[in-house]
Q: What sequence folds into this?
């Protein structure tokens, strides 16, 4: 079945540091890939997406590239802010399964 | 614009009690799902529905029951609560189609404690 493996956390960075959160997946066919963010006390919100190989999703300074050859979708940001502190989830959507499969989540804390 | 509405926000149960978590959406989405979120385990799918009258099991269905009598509502029933069901529960909905995942809407969650 489909699965998503996400970098273990928690991750603690200083403000303006570079962020990478690794995500790899296993799926049949050609899934769409997503990063969701969960701020404290809230539900998940879509951060960015990519629907086919070599697509780059971007939003709020975050980027991720759909790499089919390495089955990866790593999240990056060049300069994190305190307001980026949240839990980040990698996920895939497979049309055949008709559901999203989530990774375990990575807690990011950014210190001033 | 209500989106996905979940009630209650918090609930404490005793072992063996039953209860229903409510979920309603006003976007006419075909697909609705229930997830539970546990530390270090991400979101795990409990049950899902691809339309009124159609439900199916997810990854962790035991101890839970669902029905989908209307497009709008997708209640989750705990038949006999156990401490292992202490978790945060999220309801989600999205439209059918290959790109449905990008239009996923989550409710604000229900924090459930079973003593």
A:
């Amino acid at each position: 079945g489909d699965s998503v493996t996400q970098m273990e956390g928690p991750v603690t960075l200083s403000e303006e540091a570079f962020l990478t959160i690794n995500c790899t997946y296993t799926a049949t066919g050609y899934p769409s890939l997503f990063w969701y963010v969960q701020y404290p006390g809230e539900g998940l919100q879509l951060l960015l997406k990519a629907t086919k190989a070599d697509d780059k999703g971007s939003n709020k300074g975050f980027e991720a590239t759909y790499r089919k050859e390495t089955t990866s979708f790593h999240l990056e940001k060049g300069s994190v802010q305190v307001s980026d502190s949240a839990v980040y989830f990698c996920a895939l959507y497979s049309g055949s399964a008709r559901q999203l499969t989530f990774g375990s989540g990575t807690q990011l804390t950014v210190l001033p | 614009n209500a989106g996905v509405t979940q009630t209650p926000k918090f609930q404490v149960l005793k072992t063996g009690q039953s209860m229903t978590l409510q979920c309603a959406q006003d976007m006419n989405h075909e697909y609705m799902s229930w997830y539970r979120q546990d530390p270090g385990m991400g979101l795990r799918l409990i049950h899902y529905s691809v339309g009124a009258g159609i439900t199916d099991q997810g990854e962790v269905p035991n101890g839970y029951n669902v029905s989908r009598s209307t497009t709008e509502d997708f209640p989750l029933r705990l038949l006999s609560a156990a401490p292992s069901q202490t978790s945060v529960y999220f309801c989600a909905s999205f439209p059918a189609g290959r790109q449905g995942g990008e239009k996923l809407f989550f409710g604000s969650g229900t924090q459930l404690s079973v003593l």
About this structure: The radius of gyration of chain A is 13 Å. Chain A is about 0% helix and 55% strand. The CA atoms of residues 95 and 107 of chain A lie 28 Å apart. The longest strand of chain A covers residues 86-94.
